[in-house]
Amino acid sequence: MIQGVQIDMISADMVSNMTSYEKIRLILDDVRNGSVVVLEKGLTPDEQGSLLEATMMEINPGSFSGIEIETYPGSEGGKSLFQKMFGKKNAGQRMMVIGPVDQLKMLAKEKDRLVAWASAPQ
Question: CA-to-CA distance for 96 and 77, rounded, in angstroms?
Answer without folding.
Answer: 19
